[in-house]
Amino acid sequence: MEDIKQYPDFSWSYSSSSLLNRCQRAYFYRYYASHNGDNVNASDFARLAFYHKYLYKRSAIFGHFVHKAIKTFLLKVVVDKDDLIEATTDLYLSISSDLKLLETSQGKFIPMWLENPKDNILCADDFYFGPFGAQNFYPWESIKELKIKAGAVRQRILTTKPLQEFINGEILKVAEIDEQTDDKEDVFYIDFKDEKIPLFCAIDFLYFKTDGKCVVVDWKTATLNRITERTFFDAWLQLIVYALYVNQRYKIPYNKIVLRIINVVNGRMFELDGVEEWLVIKCIERIQKDISLMKSFVRNGDTKTNQSYPIQYFLKRSTTPYDKICVNCNFKYMCWGGIKADKIRRLILRKNY
Fold this sequence. Notes:
The protein is of the alpha/beta class. It has helices spanning 14-22, 24-33, 44-53, 58-79, 84-103, 110-115, 124-129, 140-156, 161-167, 232-250, 277-296, 324-327, 332-336, 339-350, and strands at residues 12-13, 171-177, 187-192, 195-200, 205-209, 214-220, 257-263, 269-273. Strands 2-5-6-7-8 form a five-stranded mixed β-sheet, sandwiched between helices. A three-stranded mixed β-sheet has the order 1-4-3. α1 crosses α2 and α4 packs antiparallel against α5.
């Protein structure tokens, strides 16, 4: 039997970096407090953090459904060479079927979620504002909008540049589809002083073209209408990290790596044809800056043990629970307490729903 680690492994990922820079306290809850929270001997605090970690906003659930459907679609079309139209219909039916889960009262899923939160999706909107809300909350209109978006994905997917390149015979080889291929995790390492720090990434679609270029695709469902000079680096940071991975694992020079952000709802695409050296340098500097900050929260900077300092070392984002980020945070009731937090606490710890 594998030993249960007392503390989580120290690593960097785009998601952990984003959360850390958004709110140190939320970073603590997700990456430290929740560790081993599903263990029978877990403390109440760890169990609460663990369950709150597996609550999802409705928009994030929709994104998960779309990514899952696109992965299946690509495996059918690009790998198995199935019929395009039939696979596109299956993609739409898959998303629509999954959306029906959100139409059903989320209250019926709470007992299943309590037994296994990792494998049972629960919508944070309904969990917080439905059975425990002080206000009436009717999500139906929002779900109707998601159904419209699902139809848009069906219409847009074949018009995206990767699918057009596949149809035109420009794809030489598919390397990865959504996170991993051939049971190899998307993990690589970056040198930080005398250590090698693991970096994790999850690439939606990675393939090689007949012209010798390597294309990295990131599917989006949230609105992204433009990238300005001010937002340029932050908008591309995630994919530049992917370029570091591609360069290290596949030995592809940066000028041969094409990065694409594609919104499958509105069809908009942003592309970098070749990754310039200054972007790579700035990306590495950002990762090293994050790692320095992450290590400052670890006792004695010992990343092998990776025991964090107490919660008080991790600052809250705001002094009020009405901050926009706080309102939409999974861990808001762990931070701010209140009557609703007491109800949720009793539900999770006693499982008496």
